[in-house]
Specification:
This protein is an alpha/beta fold. The chain is built from 8 helices and 19 strands. The chain is 28% helix and 27% strand. The strands form 3 sheets. Strands 4, 5, 6, 7, 13, 14, 15, 16 and 17 form a 9-stranded mixed β-sheet that branches. A 6-stranded mixed β-sheet has the order 8-3-2-12-19-18. The chain has a 4-stranded mixed β-sheet with strand order 1-11-10-9, with no helix packed on it. β18 and β19 form a beta hairpin. The chain binds flavin-adenine dinucleotide. Flavin-adenine dinucleotide binds next to α1, β13, β17 and α6.
């Protein structure tokens, strides 16, 4: 019943590498080959470190391959909330780092010649029917204070439903996440990096002599270990639902659309994404706590979408996945509990830019360089222990 639009990862053969079958050593082991692990691995390889990536599935077989692939710094928590929680500096750092996350992806697409349908476009935030725009005005003020460009619009650029006044965040982006990861993996391999898939890590140990062990009994000795498994820290798990539906070419303006509900809806267009060349409308949302999938929520999502986008035709794909939020403080990128260990976790609905931010940030930490984002993302859970 469920299948994801990005398709069978077999189409992208570089995502499948051989399992690790013997003991070895390297400078850094990265556990997890999603966007976070591959970004960290790539940036470290660019510094000349020998890096080995291990994943129990294919590259991108975790949540990266199930994402709806909005690349946005119109952050779902909202700048008003971020400012209240982490102060103006924290909100500015969140904005700056996620903006940089989008720019890093754009730069790597060009530098490494990655074909992944990267596209810059506007993002719109609108209220559900009947809700006055006071919350949007508060959010606009906070976003501007955080250094984010944002403008009022009378409505989203769609004739099919009335949103009333909404916010437009220019210069956001979208891409095809598995094609991007395939290109990033190739670029990493070209720099001498090693990736082993189907290699479950059952022990990852930091300290003075870090090492990891796989379920096949192989051991990798290293100087640092990075856990990019999307689950390393205490977090809150939400399920999110996505459907890809055919729409006639040109019937929906390409943009990122999101409403302001707590279990919010998010929509984008994949031009020419259907097998017959039609555009695909990718609509998601109905988020709820806990990791299980409730199939009836696909019907709720489909109704929501058809009411607002009456031009949608056949449902080609539907899937759901888990979004991990950090329970304590902002999402984490930084030192783990043990010496010489690092973690990336809790990127929630912005995990693609969060995982990308981890690339330069963890590389700076391992190379002993200061990084302006390190303080905001330092794992709070471990701050007292170290
Ligand atoms: C439906 C949905 C829609 C989303 N939409 C967006 C969006 O539009 N924009 C956005 O920015 N984010 C979005 N997200 C969030 C985003 O997809 C994730 O936060 C992000 O992909 C996480 O990347 P990651 O590399 O940290 O984790 P993952 O991609 O999950 O990778 C972790 C990897 O670690 C591996 N692993 C785990 N444990 C082990 C082990 N013991 N041994 C070996 N390997 C292991 C897993 O197999 C996996 O491949 C969405 C998520 C979902 C579910």
């Amino acid at each position: 019943m469920f299948s994801c639009w990005y398709g069978d990862a077999n189409e992208l053969s570089v995502l499948h590498q051989l399992p690790l079958v013997r003991d070895t050593r390297c400078d850094v082991v990265v556990v997890g080959a999603g966007i976070a692990g591959m970004s960290v691995a790539y940036f470290l390889a660019r510094e000349g470190r020998s890096v080995l990536v291990l994943d129990d599935g294919p590259v991108g077989g975790g949540m990266t391959g199930l994402s709806s692939a909005h690349l946005s710094y119109a952050l779902e928590d909202g700048y008003a909330r971020l400012e209240a929680l982490y102060g103006l500096e924290g909100a500015r750092t969140a904005a700056e780092s996620h903006r940089a996350g989008v720019a890093i992806i754009e730069d790597l697409v060009a530098r490494e010649n990655i074909s992944c349908q990267f596209l810059r476009l506007d993002s719109y935030l609108f209220n559900p029917p009947g809700q006055p725009p006071a919350n949007l005005e508060i959010e606009r003020g906070a976003a501007l204070r955080a250094g984010v460009e944002v403008e009022w619009e009378e409505r989203v650029p769609l004739e099919s439903f009335e949103t009333g006044a909404c916010l437009r965040f220019p210069d956001q982006a979208q891409f095809h996440p598995l094609r991007y990861l395939a290109g990033l993996t190739q670029a990493f391999l070209r720099r001498g990096g090693r990736v082993h898939t189907q290699s479950y890590v059952k022990r990852a140990v930091g300290g003075p002599r870090p090492f990891v062990e796989t379920d096949r009994g192989c051991r990798v000795d290293c100087s640092q270990v990075v856990l990019a498994t999307n689950s390393a820290l205490k977090g809150l798990t939400y399920s999110s639902y996505v459907m890809a539906m055919r729409v006639p070419p040109g019937s929906v303006q390409p943009a990122l659309y999101r409403d302001s509900l707590p279990n919010y809806h998010y929509v984008r267009l994949a031009p020419g994404g259907a097998s017959d060349g039609s555009d695909l409308l990718i609509a998601g949302g109905e988020n709820h706590r806990e990791g299980q999938t409730f199939p009836q929520l696909f019907s709720t999502l489909e109704k929501w979408t058809r009411r607002r986008f009456p031009m949608v035709g056949k449902v080609d794909y539907l899937w759901s996945g888990q979004v991990i939020r950090s329970a304590e403080g902002p999402a984490c990128i930084g030192p783990g509990q043990e010496e010489n260990s690092y973690v990336v976790s809790g990127g929630s609905g912005h995990g693609l830019t969060h995982g990308t931010i981890a690339g330069p940030l963890i590389t700076d930490l391992i190379c002993g360089r200061p990084n302006p984002w390190a303080r905001l993302y330092a794992p709070r859970e471990f701050a007292h222990a170290r």
